[in-house]
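Subject: Interface between my chains keeps coming out wrong

I've been trying for a while to get a sensible model of this assembly. When I model each chain on its own everything looks fine, but I need the whole thing in one frame so I can look at the contacts. Pasting all components below, labels as-is. Any help appreciated, I'm running out of ideas.
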Amino acid sequence: MNGITIALSKGRIFEETLPLLAAAGIVPTENPEQSRKLIIGTNRPDVRVVIVRASDTPTYVQYGAADLGIAGKDVLIEHGGAGLYQPLDLKIAKCRMSVAVPVGFDYAAAVRSGARLRVATKYINTAREHFAAKGVHVDLIKLYGSMELAPLVGLADAIVDLVSSGNTLKANNLVAVEDIMPISSRLIVNQAALKMKRELLQPVIDAIAGAVK
Amino acid sequence: MVKPMRRWLLPEAIEDLLPEEAWQVEILRRNLLDDFRRHGYELVAPPLLEYVESLLTGSGRDMDLRTFKLVDQISGRTMGIRADITPQVARIDAHLLNRPGVTRLCYCGSILHTLPAGLLASREPLQIGAEIYGHAGLEADIEVVRLLARTLQRGGLTASRIDLGHVGVFRALAAAAGIDAELEQDFFAALQTKDVPDLIELVAGIAEPLRSAFLALPQCCGGVDALHRARQFLPDLPEISSALDDLQRLAAALGELPLGFDLSDLRGYNYQNGIVFAAYCSNHPGAIAVGGRYDNVTKAFGRSRAATGFSLDLRELARLVERAARPAGVLAPHIGDDVALRQVVEALRERGEIVVEALPGHGEDWAESACDRRLVRHDGDWHIESSTKTIPLPRH
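Reply #2:
Try treating it as a single job with all components included. I did that and got this:
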């Protein structure tokens, strides 16, 4: 493909990316929330947007199926980032990666060095790295959604998950006890595409960089 | 319950080369090695496995993890299956050939990786490469970059691009900033992925002008303008000036090639020490060939030698280039003791034709034997008959 393909996920990332793309003179012709199309055109005939699942964005860009993509740091850490350039923090879709436990659970006592903890999460690599750095043994349970349920039904002692407002935690009688890292979305670029199509990609990257708040 | 093993199943990222692919790879191998030979590169064939100490000399931890290992029943020592032929060739130059002057070596052989080196990469790449030992000057780098470009072109890649870098620039900055080895790895990882947000965090404790210099490295990427930016934004350290001078001279000497520059590409940083380069092409997500200078590797083999070269995976290259049309053969009847027919067939083979002898009872199927013509006798003379015309053969 000679033009530019941009991989985006529906929802918050798509919405918050629109102004950045507009700064680069790119306006998608359809809204993925209304359209069922997976490939969306833009006002520029040589630029198209592909709609992918958030956790698949790095894979599409890594394989060169898309030249650019926008992915949360949470997703990038799980993916590993191999074969990608990540030149820009877009400062959108901000939240925190945190450890949460049921209200009343003595987390500080549970994670004394050498202890063993059962942790449910979608973010296996992040959780493994975090607890390894603390010297705490964990049994990780991979879940794909509704992590908050796991401690309530005795599946896990704690969860590692994204927290933005904290309302879901509160509604389920959980509390965030430890911040792992702040999360926001990054612009990611396929390595070979940046080399082979620099004239095309660099102006878009620069325009987006200029529009980041 | 463990499912019964499907006997035809190959391990992940391990593949067969089927007839046409295998020929494609083999023809490429011959073409490229012939070309290396015409440039004066001597062929060496190091062993598939050797002691890990020599295999892993001067390489980083990633190479260690990428190497399959086993215990030698004779010595009890750990052997590794080569994951890269370059250190073996360096060992041959430094220790076995022991020549004082310039030595040019080339090689082609299978290597094994525990983990695939890249996306879509095989765990059994067929590594082909060329190395120059004994010349520290830029002339050697110019020769290998030019040979790489020629190799890609002869290999059939129409559009490609070679990006040059120089690990000396980052090394000089890291030394000036007094970065320790552990932090250096973090910098390396951030620069390798042009991860500016992480880089901003890493340089937090570093004083100006080095702080801005680190942040400028990912911007020093692109055409010759990247070198101008580097002169503008990087401090005037002698190592940096000389690295930039080297790159500038390379750019001037190789003006006919599609060159780019990337000062934050630190591939092979663990053992490389000067000019480094990587080739890219369309339809491939990463670098197709890599190379550069590695003057210090040979020291461990008892003799420090200047060294530079490149290598690539022939299987990967073969996948990217258009497959040559399969040459079709001529189907001959079963020869038996027909001496005249045998002579006709031999003569055709001497001319380079593929002649397939039909075995009794299988004579009718041209396509199965990949033939588009057949040998037929008319009035006592042999003719080659295709579906459209008949060509008489000269009499013997």
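Reply #3:
Confirming on my end. Chain B has a mean pLDDT of 90.
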